[in-house]
Amino acid sequence: MQIIHPVADMTHWSREVIASGKTIALVPTMGYFHEGHLSLMRLAGRLADLVVVSLFVNSLQFGPNEDLSRYPRDLEMDEGMAANTGVDILFVPSDNDMYAPDFDSLVRVGGITNTLCGEKRPGHFEGVSTVVAKLFNIIRPHYAVFGQKDFQQLSVIRKMVQDLNWDIEIVSHPIVREDDGLAMSSRNTYLSIEERRKALCLYESIRHAKARVAEGITDAGRLKSEIQDIISANSGVSIDYISVVDKDTLSDMEIIDSQSVLALAVRVGATRLIDNCMLGNNSAASN
Ligand code: AMP
């Protein structure tokens, strides 16, 4: 595995690879790898001749009171894990190289960013779509792999690629969970033992929702209120949102059907965690 830091070197490498007729799959990340990231990398390896993983803690997607300064980092560990997973290039650009002092452009996706995390984290998705747009232009991948854990982010990237005519296939990977059901996240490292236990209320909610839908419940309001009870039973856990939305438009749904997604965001102590699942008939096929 080769590690590339300068943006210009990354561009040079990718142009040579493309000219040689080989395909590239990109996995954008913020590092501090876990099995979720590694699963995306393996999927990328099955899609294309060469796998590029970008590792960049993107300041532009963090709000002023968010966790940018304490976001977990361990480049040495990440290098070892990526190398063992068959990654060809680990692209680790510097802040200055990505955002020159006079950097002054943003990519903004409309409607679907006005809800869920976009509503709770103003500017977050502009930061995400801008950095992903830059990565797409630097690397020009044929495929880009994103996790369903960040379900709204996946929708935003798909919309951006469609609206801006990028010839890139966006491929998604299901949520990878710990044995007890907690969705893997770099942010789980912030949790104390007690908080880690309370964070399981997210997966408990998802299991409850799937069971209730299997029983035939279609009233989204009722399901949300039951989930609110499950989460509120844990002191120190506050709810950012409990939503049932259409998987394509992300608009709120009152009646649950096969298009419905349950999306959850909570704060466990100071740590914000998200999770989601498909509801409806095909829920067994997703996690
Ligand atoms: P991050 O480093 O948190 O920005 O995540 C990089 C990519 O990994 C994103 O596409 C995430 O959706 C994906 N990802 C993070 N955690 C998981 C998980 N538990 N399962 C599947 N994908 C994940």
Number of helices: 10
Which ligands occur here? Answer: adenosine monophosphate
| Secondary structure tally: strands | 9
Instruction: For the record, give the distance between the C-alpha atoms at the N and C termini, rounded to a whole number.
Output: 32 Å
Strand content: 15-25%
For the biggest sheet, the summary is:
6 strands, parallel
- Class per helix and strand makeup: alpha/beta
Biggest sheet strand line-up: 1-4-3-2-5-6
Along the chain, the helix and strand elements come as: EHEHEHEHHHEHEHHHEEE
Instruction: Tell me, rounded to a whole number, the average pLDDT.
Output: 96
Unreliable segments (pLDDT under 50, ≥5 consecutive)?
283-287
Share of residues in helices: 25-40%
What gyration radius follows from the Cα positions, in whole Å?
Answer: 19 Å
The rough form would be described as globular
Describe this structure in words.
There is one protein chain. This protein is of the alpha/beta class. It contains 10 helices and 9 strands. α6 (124-139) packs across α7 (151-163) and α9 packs antiparallel against α10 (220-232). The longest helix is centred in the middle third of the chain and has 16 residues, at 124-139. It is globular, with a radius of gyration of 19 Å. Adenosine monophosphate binds next to α2 and β5.
